[in-house]
Amino acid sequence: MAVRVALVGCGRISRVHLNSLLALRDPSLVISTAVDPNVAAAQQTRQLLPAPQECKVYGSVEEAGDDSYDAAVIMVPHHLHVEIAREVLSKGKHVLLEKPLATSIEGCRELLALVQSTDRVFMVAENSPHWPEVAHAVNLIKEEVIGDPYYAQANYWEAVGHSDFNNGDVAEWRFDPSQVGGGVVMDGAIHWMRPLRLFLGDISKVVSTMAYPWESVKGESLADALIQFKNGRTGLLHCHTNIIPMEKIPFFQIFGTKGEITIHGSFDGGLSVHTAGRTVSVNPGGYFGAFKPQMASFVSAIKKGKRISPSDSGSVLEAFKDVLVANAIYRSAKSGAWEAVDNNDTV
């Protein structure tokens, strides 16, 4: 079964998804279409394809028409997610939509309703469940290697002047709260919320603070949230976008009654398990190792004609829960009080 894929949005993240498609080495996959209002960006994406693949370039989904692709990987600015996903679904295409699901609860509800009314595969590209370090930590917790986990600390940070996140690669829209849906919380830290839920369970409420130390970052560039989980466990989410180089700190620390799991603060990977008198360190594959299995899951669902189930890591329902957590963090920063994460919104 041949699957023609459209890359909708040809910015920085499109290179990562393109590489994951090519890494599958599946001759039945054809990258047939590149779409971006900046046609030059779409043309640059086409040039990354190995010969003899052909790929047509368009300035919009409407211009691409109905017959140039079967599935779309949508990688547009956040505020366009609902609009573009709605348009692509209306053409009967399969969708892999970059996170977050939407910038508003209303947008999430609309996409949830659309997905429930279609037989197309609709998957949200929340790659963190496929992140090798996260998956390994989840397995270690299930195996009770650190006993009963009672607390997790998550540090989402980006040093946009750092060598592994060059300032020139940051699109201007990412500094605009109206397009991002906020600042660092909605932009990148939402990737860290899913692992916290995988480690400790669903979140019941949060209390948070925010700050705006950098004039160039219009949304919040610093936020902290104390988290209460439904099962009584607690956690802390620290989010920080810094425009200068900064010391790398662990991405995650999960504390249990018999030890600790640390996911190192490097996109290149690394994880350590600390138990009584012993430390074991491994490198399961690194952050970018998440994208190939994520893409494989999407392609497999299309070929099998299998819709993404509500409990699947790429489901709209799970992505909706992440947005609800982010929304509660924003509400708490304004109210100065604990705010509930109402998962009834997803019903």
UniProtKB/TrEMBL annotation:
SUPFAM superfamilies: Glyceraldehyde-3-phosphate dehydrogenase-like, C-terminal domain (SSF55347), NAD(P)-binding Rossmann-fold domains (SSF51735)
GFO/IDH/MocA-like oxidoreductase domain ranges (all copies): 136-261
Record-linked Pfam families: GFO_IDH_MocA (PF01408), GFO_IDH_MocA_C3 (PF22725)
InterPro entries the UniProt entry points to: Gfo/Idh/MocA-like_OxRdtase_N (IPR000683), Gfo/Idh/MocA_Oxidoreductases (IPR051450), GFO_IDH_MocA-like_dom (IPR055170), NAD(P)-bd_dom_sf (IPR036291)
GO molecular function, one term: nucleotide binding
Boundaries of every Gfo/Idh/MocA-like oxidoreductase N-terminal domain copy: 3-125
Family per similarity comment: Belongs to the Gfo/Idh/MocA family.
Protein name per UniProt: Gfo/Idh/MocA-like oxidoreductase N-terminal domain-containing protein
Species of provenance: Amphimedon queenslandica (Sponge)
